[in-house]
Automatic annotation (TrEMBL):
Higher taxonomy: Eukaryota, Metazoa, Chordata, Craniata, Vertebrata
Protein's recorded name: Small RNA 2'-O-methyltransferase
Reaction equations catalysed: small RNA 3'-end nucleotide + S-adenosyl-L-methionine = small RNA 3'-end 2'-O-methylnucleotide + S-adenosyl-L-homocysteine + H(+)
Record-linked InterPro entries: Hen1, SAM-dependent_MTases_sf
EC number: 2.1.1.386
A Gene Ontology BP annotation from the UniProt entry: siRNA processing
GO molecular function, one term: metal ion binding
Length: 372
């Protein structure tokens, strides 16, 4: 490479967004494309990729593994649920776990993943660990997809201040041919196909250098059979779990019940409010008030387009307002949360005041009448 040309570039190469963000975005895009439910990040370091992935709504199980417990522990609290996660539990379930251990060892907690990411990990492995790595990841874990990124040494001359390796802990840095031959051999050995790409574009005129970070995306060629999943999978646990967070989810009956109760009361209040404002228009005649049967038109704007039967109409009787459960159930959000009318009844039983036959939510408006 022409030295002057090289020097010129080393002055100006600055990736935007920064390279680590580009690598993480690459993984996020892959997650959005393949929609894996279970993702494991090997060599997760400070968990920054996991922190980003927890917002991908397809993921239900996230695991991190690192040989250095301290680096994981530094920011692992940021993987815990936030108050808002409890206030508005998500529809999906999500469990985040961090393990302390080496990718050179097999542990049953690493089985069953759809996607395994190894971002800037392999160049940190000792020769003996690198030898065991393919058998652990491709042979034992055998996920549908594996992503491996590693520095491309051909790019190093373009980076300012890089003498031998980009990081003092790197045990090696491969050029494109070295990475590709290792990846192709690994893929062939374990029944995967592999495609090469990268992040960190080389400058114009330097395309031959390739991407600053080279990436191999491995896709398993054959579905795993029940036999291959079970055979030769040792059950002995060698990793230590250092963190586990189970996010509140509507899949958990406890959170679903709370959400349904709040939604039912909220919905009933909206209907009651609309009903009462119409009711007031009828003046003080108690005869007329008690017989008041509003048209559903008076709150159809919040119901959306609903087919409302006669027996679904709310009504006032004396000091009580009755909002039929069937009406509440026809609200899209309540409907989606409960699925069936029976489930709605079961979830609110004993938690919401109902009419004696259990068919309507009942509000006493005596106090409200006094105020008016
Ligand atoms: N994946 C991270 C950074 C990786 S740095 C990111 O994208 O930002 C490499 C990480 O691999 C370090 O945290 C290091 O502790 C870990 N590591 C090194 N050898 C390992 C091994 N044998 N098993 C698991 N993790 C290892």
């Amino acid at each position: 490479m022409d030295k002057n040309f090289q020097e010129e570039f080393t002055q100006i190469i600055k990736f935007k967004p920064p390279l680590y963000k580009q690598r993480h975005q690459f993984v996020k895009d892959l997650v959005e494309k393949y929609k894996p439910k279970k993702v494991a990040d090997l060599g997760c370091a400070d968990c920054s990729l996991l922190r980003m992935l927890k917002f991908c709504s397809c993921i239900e199980v996230l695991a991190g593994l690192d040989i250095c417990a301290n680096v994981m522990k530094e920011k692992m609290h940021t993987l815990s649920p936030l108050p808002v996660d409890y206030l508005q539990p998500s529809e999906r379930s999500l469990t985040v776990t961090l393990h302390h251990g080496s990718v050179a060892h097999k542990d049953p907690c690493m089985l069953g993943f759809d996607l395994v990411t190894c971002i800037e990990l392999i160049e940190h492995l000792e020769e003996s660990e690198l030898k065991k790595f393919p058998e652990v990841v491709f042979g034992f874990m055998a996920p549908s997809i594996v992503v491996i990124s590693t520095p491309n040494s051909e790019f190093n001359p373009l980076l300012p201040g890089v003498m031998l390796y980009r990081h003092p802990d790197h045990k090696f840095e491969w050029n494109q041919a070295q990475f590709q031959s290792w990846a192709l051999e690994t893929a062939r050995c374990y029944g995967y196909s592999v495609e090469f790409t990268g992040v960190g574009q080389p400058p114009t005129g330097m395309e031959k250098a390739g991407f600053c970070t080279q990436i191999g995306v491995f896709v398993r060629k054959y579905p795993q059979t029940g036999e291959s999943v079970q055979c030769e999978k040792p059950t002995e646990a060698v990793y230590k779990t250092v963190f586990k967070a189970v996010y509140p989810s509507l899949k958990d009956e406890k959170y679903l019940q709370n959400a349904v109760i709040s939604e039912v009361i909220f919905t009933a209040q909206i209907i009651k409010h609309r009903l009462m404002s119409k009711h007031e228009e009828y003046g003080d005649d108690p005869e007329r008030k008690s017989k008041f049967q509003p048209s559903m038109d008076c709150f159809s704007d919040c119901l959306g387009k609903l087919v409302v039967e006669k027996n679904m109409e709310p009504f006032v009787s004396g000091n009580e307002v009755y909002i039929p459960l069937a009406t509440i159930f026809s609200f899209p959000k309540v409907n989606r949360l409960c699925g069936t009318f029976e489930k709605l009844c079961k979830l609110i039983a004993g938690k919401v005041t109902l009419s004696s036959d259990g068919s309507a939510v009942m509000f006493n408006i005596e106090h409200e009448n006094e105020e008016n």
